[in-house]
Specification:
alpha/beta; Zincin-like; five-stranded mixed sheet; four-stranded mixed sheet
Length: about 240
């Protein structure tokens, strides 16, 4: 059984769902382009995000969340533990496991050796240096993948930026600028390859119609497997850092 109550008088856009003794915070937001009510897990905040079309009522949205309370509880329970980038932390990297080790007297940059990332410098800045290193690895891998795939469809290397969005793995602007989540470097290579292919395919087709799908099939050999992995494991990548 689940029930909802207001989180506080000041927070009309937040409710608490109580599921089997666990309190789950649900945050509602409106999006002018939303066509239906959607619900997703925010792995960074241990909460759920409810997206409402402009004309949907808050009560209908929270009712939608109540109906899916069991699903939310299962999704949150399946997430890996929150793991800061600390000494001795184990994190995913290219689909494998990577051990972080602080190495005070080493050189200026992190060094990867045999599944261990040796990170020099002041311990207080270790997390920032690990994140910067991962972002650099992501930028290099995604630039190579996007450049190769763009060339295969007759396009010049697209401008690429690396960010940390909560709900999207990649995007393509109308001007052909690609943006990706740096967290893709933690996923298996076929997942990074698929997301790069998806956004490169948008250089030719901004919609998701038949021509886009045909282009994507040319560019990504394992797209079904990659989509399944992201649906199953993707939210867990936000538990690191």
């Amino acid at each position: 059984m689940s029930r909802a109550r207001a989180a506080s008088p000041e927070s009309a856009l937040e409710r608490i769902l109580e599921v089997d003794g666990r309190a789950i915070l649900v945050r509602a937001r409106r999006h002018r382009r939303a066509r239906r009510i959607t619900l997703r897990v925010d792995a960074r905040e241990d909460c759920a995000v409810l997206t409402l079309p402009a004309r949907a009522s808050l009560e209908s949205g929270f009712g939608f969340a109540r109906e899916r309370a069991g699903w939310l509880a299962r999704k949150l329970a399946a997430l890996p533990p929150l793991t800061p980038f600390d000494d001795h932390a184990v994190i995913p990297f290219r689909g494998a496991r990577l051990l972080i080790r602080h190495l005070p007297p080493a050189g200026p940059d992190p060094v990867l050796m045999g599944g261990i990332l040796h990170v020099p410098g002041d311990p207080a800045g270790l997390a920032a240096r690990v994140k910067d290193w991962l972002r650099g690895e992501a930028l290099g891998a995604l630039t190579r993948a996007a450049t190769q795939k763009a060339a295969s469809i007759g396009r010049a290397p697209p401008p690429i930026s690396i960010r940390d969005p909560r709900a999207r793995w990649g995007s393509c602007s109308a001007k052909g600028r690609l943006s990706f989540s740096w967290r893709l470097i933690m996923a298996p290579p076929m997942v990074l390859d698929y997301v790069a292919a998806h956004e490169v395919a948008h250089l030719l087709h901004l919609d998701h119609g038949a021509e886009f799908k045909a282009t994507l099939t040319r560019l990504a050999a394992r797209q079904a497997e990659a989509r399944d992995w992201l649906a199953r494991e993707g939210s867990g990548l936000h538990r690191y850092g």
